[in-house]
Design a protein that fits this description.
- The structure is a single chain.
- The protein is α+β, with helices and mostly antiparallel strands.
- A 4-stranded antiparallel sheet has the order 1-2-3-4. A 4-stranded mixed sheet has the order 7-6-5-8, with helices on one face.
- The protein has 6 helices and 8 strands, in the order αβααββααββββαβ.
- A hairpin with a 4-residue loop joins strand 5 (183-189) and strand 6.
- The termini are far apart.
C-alpha cells in the first residue's frame, strides 16, 4: 500500500511537472513520452472524451450502420436478380434498406444519449503502447479511479501483480489492438486530439492530450512501416 501511494505521488508529480513545462514553454530536450513510460517498457495513459461535446464516436457508429445497410442491400439485390424480380425488386430492396437505415439513425440518437449518461458523459480510455502495437481499452469508470488502478497496475511490478491486474480488468470494457505492421494508413486530427489507424479489418482511434499528441503521433508513425500518411 505504501509503495502504491508513493508511486501515485510520483505519477502526480510527473503530471504536474509536465503541465508546468507546458505553461512555461517546456525544456526542448525532454521527451514528453517519458512521463508515460512504465517499468515494463510500455507507454500507458488515460484519456477522457466528452461524449456530448465530441460526436466523433457517434459518427463512427453511423458509418458502421451505413456500411452494414449497403451490404444488406447488395445481398438483397443479388437475391432479386437470381429470383427474376429484376429492377422492380432491386428498387423495393433499396427503399426498404433506406427506411431501415433512417430508423436506425434516429434510434441511435436517444441510444447515444443513454450511453453517455451511463458513462457520466465521458468515454474513458486506457492506452498501452509499445514497439509492436497499441491497445485501446475502454474503462468503465471515471478518470480519477482509472488513474488509481493504473498506478496500482504499474506499481505492482514488484508487488502483487495478480490482484492489481484483476482490478484493472474488472473495470475494463471493450478492447481494440492495432499491430503496427498491419496498419495501412495513419491520419492525425490534432484539433480533435485523435489519431486514426486503419488496417484491413481494424479501425482504431488513438486519443492523446495536447502535450503528448505530437510525440505519440511521431512514435506510431515511425513504427508503422507499411502505413500511408494522410
Amino acid at each position: 500500500m505504501e509503495y502504491m501511494e508513493h508511486t501515485r505521488d510520483i505519477y502526480d508529480q510527473t503530471e504536474n511537472a509536465a503541465a508546468a513545462d507546458e505553461a512555461a514553454g517546456g525544456p526542448p530536450e525532454r521527451d514528453p513520452l517519458g512521463a508515460l513510460l512504465d517499468r515494463g517498457g510500455k507507454y500507458r495513459w488515460i484519456y477522457e472524451v466528452p461524449m456530448l461535446k465530441s460526436f466523433f464516436l457517434l459518427m463512427e457508429v453511423w458509418k458502421v450502420l451505413g456500411i452494414s445497410t449497403f451490404l444488406v442491400f447488395i445481398i438483397m439485390s443479388l437475391i432479386d436478380l437470381i429470383s427474376g424480380q429484376g429492377f422492380a425488386g432491386i428498387l423495393f430492396s433499396l427503399e426498404m434498406c433506406l427506411l431501415l437505415l433512417g430508423i436506425f439513425l434516429v434510434l441511435s440518437l436517444p441510444a447515444y444519449y443513454i450511453v453517455t449518461k451511463a458513462n457520466n458523459g465521458k468515454y474513458t480510455v486506457l492506452f498501452e503502447m509499445d514497439d509492436s502495437g497499441i491497445d485501446h481499452t475502454q474503462i468503465k469508470t471515471d478518470k480519477a479511479r482509472a488513474l488509481e488502478m493504473l498506478t496500482a497496475y504499474v506499481g505492482s511490478a514488484i508487488k502483487n501483480r495478480t490482484t492489481t491486474a484483476a482490478a484493472v480488468l474488472s473495470a475494463a470494457g471493450t478492447s481494440l489492438y492495432s499491430r503496427y505492421d498491419k496498419v495501412r494508413s495513419i491520419k492525425a486530427l490534432p484539433e480533435k486530439n485523435t489519431i486514426l489507424l486503419n488496417g484491413r479489418f481494424i479501425r482504431n482511434q488513438i486519443y492523446a492530450e495536447d502535450r503528448y499528441f505530437d510525440a505519440v503521433y511521431d512514435y506510431i508513425r515511425r513504427h508503422c512501416p507499411n502505413a500511408e500518411i494522410r
